[in-house]
Specification:
The complex is a heterodimer of chains A (500) and B (156). By secondary structure, chain A is of the alpha/beta class. Chain A contains 13 helices and 20 strands. In chain A, β4, α8 and β5 form a beta-alpha-beta unit. In chain A, α8 packs across α9 and α12 packs parallel to α13. With 156 residues, chain B is mainly α. Chain B is elongated. Chain B has one domain. Chain B has a two-stranded antiparallel sheet. In chain B, a hairpin with a 2-residue loop joins β1 and β2. In chain B, α1 packs antiparallel against α7, α3 crosses α4 and α5 packs across α6. The chains are: A alpha/beta (500), B mainly alpha (156). At the A-B interface, α1 and α12 of A face β1, α3, α4, α5 and α7 of B.
């Protein structure tokens, strides 16, 4: 009896040992794989870039109509430090009628195109000294797919746009804005456009449908892939040096079947990467062509606030995209290989006034410069803030973006700067960790930047940093919590940053 | 037999804590964020027990001001009138996550429990969703104990 009991005991102990050993080996293997994946992610080149290009979006400025008013705003934008002006233009507006053939669709001289508005905007942007970034959206009805549902389900211009016609149209666009195209009746060529976004927020049904298949699997990434690839090839056939950004995703999604696809879900489906905590290529034999990555990380509060849903991407969450890039490149899904700049082509916080739901002007300014730092730290190279001047009021403020760095006057000449104007033109932050403030900013010009600390009622220079050609400066300073700091470059002074 | 199962029981308990911890920590969130675009397509929805809810985002944080700033700094700022209060509000609203985390940790017992559980879970399973380092160590220790007990039993 004793011997039997001992035998059972030994067998059980041996079994337990074997199970533990097997489990330990399995977990150690996974641990090694995780560490390896992290190592690979860390090898991606999305550290802080050398420079940061600033820009603006402002649909209402594009639609002002009066060239002198547009020029007033765009000249001001350039003077404020913007070097890019992004404008979205509707394919449907440029090509309301169907070209007779793909060959004619690729010809910018085809008589059916309506180029006047786009030409004027591009010329205004170039005249101000900025470079245009064009985002395409809205397919003409003739280019939408078959079996179109009602517009309540699929808004106009969103239903399965034809990639082949879009590619031909991209060719016409690239030819027209190649920098060498002279329109009939003009004596000089149109300015060049070198930066493009193939579609706007393709993870929203506002811009692309269907988002999901009948079985609630991602559908829009496949549609977008075809559009992007056609657009990329169309542009590159004319101007191989042009930059075509992919993604241009909106920040938040809904559960499968909803109106919005979470951006992480969209990017993974686009790049053929598995869901779950250990993303890997599914080797789908598809190819995505892009030279840059763009996203619209609208915020959830302060710029350091992460999205709640792990598949959403707000201001500090860009790693959710950049971690996928090397995986897709290694698998050969994402082409061409090489560094892909990270662009933020829309972002905003509203201020109060005028929007009663907005932030105080000072807080809007603090968030703006805080976001610039958080983006820079994540490797962003371009930020296009949404609105240089506040929108005209629309009921309920739902479609009013009071996110300008200027309060809108009756005319642009009567606009007045907000606190965020200073934040945009001379951003300065000093996030503090363990008593050390990480000083960061973008001076209006290159040269020495004094970091001053408020003592009593006087400001004393604590350290002098150097802003290089990129205008970026950064450094560290040991400061107490609650210390007020500011940066001074020549006659320009940043807003005060309270270290916390 | 009880002695042999003791490490396994402890191991199972740690596993259970680790598995339950994240579930407890993922409580429903309702936050309020002024300044966001009014359009619903730029607002985050999160699943809750009663279905998907808009994250109208972070609660107004002015009430937390005195806890983000040290007491002396908060007192000094509050004595500086409106400008001081504004500076304190800015400091609070722009406080990085660790400060907010610490604040909540200090203030809420239930949160502290979740945070502690989360720490254990993080140590076991890894904070980034991968496998943590503690679990293999525990397994190794369990293995050694089991072998040692087996050897001792054989010896006796």
């Amino acid at each position: 009896m004793i011997a039997t009991h001992a035998l059972h005991w030994q067998v059980r102990a041996a079994l337990l040992s074997v199970c533990c050993l097997a489990l330990a080996v399995l977990l150690w293997t996974q641990l090694a794989a995780t560490a390896s994946a992290r190592g690979k992610t860390s090898r991606s080149d999305y550290g802080p870039p050398r420079g940061l290009t600033l820009g603006f979006n402002d649909n209402e400025v594009d639609a002002l109509g009066d060239p002198s008013e547009i020029a007033t705003v765009m000249d001001r934008a350039h003077a404020d430090g913007a070097s890019v002006w992004r404008f979205a233009t509707a394919w449907a507006a440029l090509s309301p009628t169907k070209p007779p053939s793909l060959a004619e669709a690729a010809d910018p001289n085809w008589s059916g195109y309506h180029w006047a508005a786009a030409d004027a905007t591009v010329e205004e942007i170039a005249a101000s000294g900025m470079t245009p970034l064009i985002a395409l959206l809205d397919a003409p009805a003739w280019a939408e797919g078959p079996n179109r549902p009602t517009t309540s389900v699929a808004p106009a211009g969103t239903w399965k746009p034809s990639a082949s016609w879009f590619g031909a149209f991209a060719t016409a666009l690239a030819k027209r804005y190649s920098g060498t195209f002279t329109p009939a009746g003009s004596s000089q060529p149109l300015p060049a456009v070198r930066d493009w976004e193939a579609w706007n927020e393709p993870n929203l049904s506002t811009y692309l449908t269907p988002q999901w298949s009948a079985s609630k699997r991602p559908a829009s990434p496949g549609i977008y892939r075809k559009l992007l690839d056609a657009f990329f090839k169309g542009v590159k056939s004319v101007a191989p040096q042009d930059v075509v950004a992919g993604g241009t995703t909106a920040p938040f999604g809904d559960p499968p079947g909803g109106q919005r696809m979470p951006p992480v879900t969209f990017w993974r489906a686009l790049l053929c990467i598995s869901p779950g905590p250990h993303p890997h290529s599914t080797h789908c034999h598809e190819h995505d062509y892009m030279n840059a990555i763009s996203h619209h990380p609208y915020p959830l509060g302060p710029p350091t606030t992460h999205a709640v849903d792990p598949d959403d991407i707000s201001v500090p969450d860009l790693g959710k995209i950049t971690m996928l890039i090397p995986i897709a490149e290694r698998a050969g899904t994402l082409l061409p290989k090489g560094h892909k700049p990270l662009w933020i082509t829309e972002l905003s916080w509203d201020s109060n006034p005028p929007n009663p739901n907005g932030l105080s002007p000072a807080l809007q300014a603090q968030y703006l410069e805080g976001a610039f730092y958080v983006f820079w730290k994540q490797g962003v190279s371009l930020i296009a803030w949404w609105n240089i001047r506040d929108d005209n009021y629309s009921p309920g403020w739902v479609n009013t973006l009071a996110s300008g760095i200027y309060y809108a006057g009756a005319t642009p000449a009567q606009d007045t700067p907000k606190t965020s104007y200073t934040a945009y033109t001379f951003p300065f932050t000093a996030y503090r960790t363990n008593g050390v403030a990480k000083l960061w900013g973008m001076a209006p010009t290159a040269g020495p930047v004094s970091i001053q600390v408020e003592t009593g009622s006087t400001w004393n220079t604590a350290i002098t940093l150097q802003a290089g050609a990129s205008r970026i400066f950064d450094g560290n300073l040991l400061v107490g919590m609650g210390t007020n700091l500011r940066a001074v470059s020549g006659s320009d002074t940043s807003l005060t940053w309270t270290a916390f | 037999m009880d002695r042999v199962l003791r490490p396994a029981t402890a191991f199972a308990a740690v596993l259970a804590i680790g598995l339950l911890g994240p579930a407890t920590a993922s409580a429903h969130k309702h936050i309020v964020a002024p300044g966001d675009p009014g359009s619903a397509q730029y607002q985050e929805d999160v699943p809750t027990a009663v279905g998907s809810q808009p994250v109208s985002t972070v609660q107004p944080v002015t009430s937390q001001t005195s806890s983000v700033l040290p007491q002396s700094a908060a007192h000094q700022l509050s004595s500086d009138g409106a400008a001081g209060r504004h500076a304190a509000a800015v400091a609070t609203e722009t406080a990085p996550a660790p400060v907010r985390h610490k604040l909540r940790h200090q203030r809420t017992l239930s949160y502290r429990k979740e945070a502690t559980t989360g720490l254990v879970a993080g140590a076991i399973f890894g904070a980034g969703g991968g496998v943590g380092t503690l679990l293999p160590v525990l397994l190794g220790v369990s293995l050694i104990v089991a072998i040692a007990l087996t050897m001792r039993r054989k010896g006796s």
